[in-house]
Amino acid sequence: MGFWELLEVASSPVIEVLLISAVGVFMATENCNNLLSPDFRKSLNKVVFIAFTPSLIFASFAKKVSLDELILWWFMPVNIGLTFLIGGILGWIIVKVLKPNLKLQGLIIASCSTGNMGNLPIVIIPAICNEKGGPFGELDDCRKRALSYSFCSLALGGVFIWTFTYQLMRNTSLRYKAFEAAEILKMPNKGLDADEETGFLKRNAGDSENQILVDQCASTVSMNSETSLWHRMTETVGHVLKELMSPPTIATFFGFLFGGVEWLRNLIIGREAPLRVILDSIQLLGDGTIPCITVLLGGNLTQGMQSSSVQPLVVICIIIARLVLLPAIGFFVVRGAANFGLLPLDPLFQYVLVIQYALPPAMNISTMAQLFDVGTEESSVIILWTYGAATIALTLWSTYLIWIFS
């Protein structure tokens, strides 16, 4: 496969994302009567989160991934977890070095740790098989394996995205809003404090109230010390259960259940399946996920280009971490696992594992930013520039990997 052919294969899905985002940009302008208004984008994000994304995950997992394949590909979830871990460490280093605004800290870590495990691999990896004489075998067999690997990547990646990244963005939103509330409370009330006598009376009243609070705390400290550990444990379990009850996570569980249990799989998959219309309906609903997310990305971009507080240095560091350092580290991780005999002999499987490190940030980050109302414009700008850089980075990494596995 020549360089220019590979350039076309690797850059096409990224360019598609940018073109569809341009539609969202147009729909959010006055030329289109501001169809994608901020309130409408927020509502549509909720629809994507509750209906579209779970449908896509369930249909992908139930239809393309079986229990036997998951056992054979046991290193793939480990590999995806490593992409999140190593990328998160790189993002944390960027935050510590550059010290950005609190609103951006979680967004930077999410952008470095969370790759697009869904629509990009589904388009890129099978397209690699289209070239005759490729290193991954015959066309039909290669495409079948490529689709299985891609949909498994989508489903497993969704588990990490809607647990780790979702919680990260949620905590960032809570911290930022708490910081804003604290700043508002710190603002002095000049109308009252201007009167010296009033200020003196207020201080005395405050001291009395504080003393009462101290006495109350002293009388209950022993009881609190006994129950605090239990309270923290129940609170932690409650948070975990809440995250596990999110629609994408539930869809992942049922997708694994129907994909892994044969008699359940036969109920909804196949021409003779009695309930195949249910899976067809779910898949039809899931097909709207990627277009909606991409159009919303463009709509958010209209505000991001005008009011974003993202410094160019932050974007450059994210691009270097996500598209250069992370895949370089991932390459040695995968090659090391292969040398120890932990991976199947299929070179396409190893190719997919390395590509998982080289993907640009997941577009779901923009969805979460919209859901939690934190860094919406900034996330759009980061994704725009990283996807533009990924056009070149993915091509170079794909060229190198195909040369290695040839």
UniProtKB/TrEMBL annotation:
Segments crossing the lipid bilayer: 6-26, 47-65, 71-95, 107-128, 148-169, 313-334, 384-405
What's its membrane topology? Multi-pass membrane protein
List keywords of the entry alphabetically: Auxin signaling pathway, Endoplasmic reticulum, Membrane, Transmembrane, Transmembrane helix, Transport
Residues in a coiled coil are none
InterPro entries assigned: Mem_transp_PIN-like, PILS1/3/4/5/7
Its localization reads: Endoplasmic reticulum membrane
**GO cellular component terms attached to this protein's record:** endoplasmic reticulum membrane
Q: Write one Pfam family the protein is assigned to.
A: Mem_trans
Superkingdom of the organism of origin: Eukaryota
A single GO BP term for this record reads: auxin-activated signaling pathway
Q: Which family does it belong to?
A: Belongs to the auxin efflux carrier (TC 2.A.69.2) family.
> In UniProt terms, what function does this protein have?
Involved in cellular auxin homeostasis by regulating auxin metabolism. Regulates intracellular auxin accumulation at the endoplasmic reticulum and thus auxin availability for nuclear auxin signaling.
Recorded protein name is Protein PIN-LIKES 7
UniProt source species:
Vigna radiata var. radiata
Q: What is the lineage of its organism?
A: Eukaryota, Viridiplantae, Streptophyta, Embryophyta, Tracheophyta
